[in-house]
Design a protein that fits this description.
Layout: E1 3-13, E2 28-32, H1 38-49, H2 62-69, E3 74-81, E4 84-93, E5 98-106, H3 115-129, E6 134-140, H4 147-153, E7 157-167
Parallel strand pairs: 5-6
Antiparallel strand pairs: 1-6, 1-7, 2-3, 3-4, 4-5
Helix pairs in contact: 1-2
Length: 181
Amino acid sequence: MPITPVTIVHLELIAPDQLRPKAGRPEWGVVRVPAPLPELNRFFYTAVGGDWYWIDRLGWTYQDWLKYLNRPELHTWLVTVGGVPAGYFELEMQADGNIEIAYFGLLPAVVGEGLGGWALTRAVQECWATGAQRIWMHTCNLDHPAALANYLARGFREFKRETKYEDLPPRPTGPWPGARD
């Protein structure tokens, strides 16, 4: 696999009034997943991230997923359109009052409709509602081309930038092995 430079951008909001919300549509919703569901998170991880080199967790077993999800500090939320799952976000509460938006993304079929800005608004609102002192997330140059612009448009500001070098396949895997062949 070729060595690829990956530029990671770390972003934060440190006060609720920094959020620049995006209005939604009546058919858009979010709902918290009440219990760990490894199948659900793995589905979204592969379906959302398959085009963007989300590969770190592809080798995880069911037990790995369950161990990750079965922690009181981790909450999974579904983004829905007309009641149908369309994306997700994972919020990880941290001991210092920070909340990380650990994963955030939409299914390819709904990208480009403005849902991402609204879903990020809702993720941030849920963080503040749980008492966050600071909200942070990161993205990289391998993510969807509109991801960073969406985060900045919602009021996030960059606090750190770093470059790492990764062994990556020549192209993203898609949502399952062979999906792009």
